[in-house]
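pasting for the record
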Amino acid sequence: MPMLLQLNIKDFAIIDDLQLSFGKGLNILTGETGAGKSIIVDAVKLILGDRASQDDIRSSKEEAVVEAMFDAAPLDIAGMLESAGLPSEENLIIKRVINRAGKNKIFINSSMANLSSLEDIGSRIIDIYGQHDHQSLTKSEEHIDILDAFAGLMALRDDIAKAYREFYSIKSELDNLTTDSERLLERQDFLNFQSKEIGEAGLKAGEDEELKKEKE
């Protein structure tokens, strides 16, 4: 199972600066109402791809930062990272920066990423169970991932996906070359036709001058 190793939160909601380290097994956060437990969960949701809001930035601050580090070994997301043009490392580090000026940023393993890639990767990392939260077991689009993970096929699936992308790239290149070849043949036929027409016309040097004189 994937494991959250470290969670850093800065200027997010009422949290000033917080660093949480997690150990193996069960980790429990306790506190009275209003202590910020739900805010920590909201910060994790942001890491998983939730939409950012300027309302999440701490009062009087210009930006909020949430960063999480996961043990990447059990995740089997190397192929997904490669498809998104992102580096694959021993640990998966995700960072969200929310800015009041709207210049929000997403970093995955220190590389800039888009929200779509984060949502795809986030769906593989954590399930949040709550009274009003959907679980991945209820999402039909997640069922194939669960079955493949259970059967230990994630690495093989990534290899097949990579092979398909390479095949599709080569096929697209071949289709383009075939189209170019057909266009060249059409151009050749057209030029041959024009050459034949010119030859059959029996044109002679100075013929245009003779035609002008006849017209006059």
